[in-house]
Write a structure and sequence with these properties.
7 helices, globular, single chain, alpha/beta, eight-stranded parallel β-sheet
C-alpha cells in the first residue's frame, strides 16, 4: 500500500473539522476508515470497523446499505453485510495475520491496517480519556452497551501494539486533539497535512 489510512475514532475530541480536512486532502491510494459511529459522520468512508455485537444489534440495519466495506470480529455482523475477520487468541500485541483485540475497536482497526499493508496510519478521536467529561463525540450508545469502558485498561494495552509497529517501521501518528496515549507519535492534523510529502 502506497497510501495513508486515516482511522476516525469516536473519542470526545473528534471534531468534524478534522473529518472535513481529511476528506478534502485525501489522495489516490489513501483510505478513510470509520470506527463505530464515526460512519454516520463520514458516510463516504471506505471502511466501517465495529467489533461489538451490541453495536451491530443497535446500528446494523442503519448501515446495511452503506456502500463502504464493513468489517468486524463478530459473526452477527455478517447479517448486515459485514466481513467477519478471525481474531487471534491473544488480547494484546501486534497480530501479523490475525487481529489482536486490545479490548477495543480502535486498537483492532490499527492492527488491521498493518495486516492490510498500510505503513502510514493517522488516527483522530483516539482519546482513551473522558475528554470534556464525555464518553464519545456523539451521544452515548443505547442501554446495555459498554459506552467506552474500561478506558484505563485500554490505554495500558496500546503500547503493546505501538512498540512492535515502530520496530517494523510503521508510522502511527495520533492526531487526536486530546488523548491519554503517549505511545504513538503526536501531531496536530493540520501540521501532519503540511508536512506530508
Amino acid at each position: 500500500m502506497a497510501g495513508v489510512v486515516f482511522i476516525l475514532c469516536s473519542g470526545p475530541s473528534q471534531h468534524q473539522d478534522d473529518v472535513r480536512l481529511i476528506r478534502s486532502h485525501r489522495r489516490d491510494g489513501d483510505q478513510v476508515w470509520a470506527v463505530n459511529n464515526m460512519i454516520f459522520r463520514a458516510p463516504w468512508a471506505d471502511l466501517l470497523y465495529a467489533c461489538d455485537k451490541g453495536w451491530w444489534k443497535a446500528y446494523g440495519k442503519r448501515v446495511r446499505d452503506f456502500p463502504c466495506r464493513k468489517v468486524s470480529m463478530m459473526a452477527k455482523s455478517k447479517s448486515y453485510g459485514a466481513q467477519e475477520i478471525v481474531r487471534c487468541g491473544r488480547t494484546t500485541g501486534l497480530g501479523e495475520t490475525r487481529v489482536h483485540s486490545g479490548g477495543n475497536s480502535g486498537y483492532q482497526a490499527i492492527n488491521l491496517a498493518y495486516i492490510e499493508g498500510f505503513r502510514e496510519i493517522v488516527v483522530t478521536g483516539l482519546d482513551c480519556f473522558h475528554t470534556y467529561g464525555k464518553r464519545h463525540c456523539h451521544e452515548d450508545h443505547p442501554s446495555g452497551m459498554d459506552n467506552a469502558s474500561p478506558l484505563a485498561v485500554w490505554a495500558q494495552r496500546f503500547p503493546t501494539l505501538a512498540e512492535p509497529l515502530k520496530e517494523k517501521g510503521v508510522r502511527v501518528v495520533n492526531c487526536s486533539r486530546h488523548t491519554a496515549l503517549d505511545c504513538f507519535e503526536r501531531m496536530p492534523l493540520e501540521l501532519w497535512m503540511e508536512k506530508r510529502p
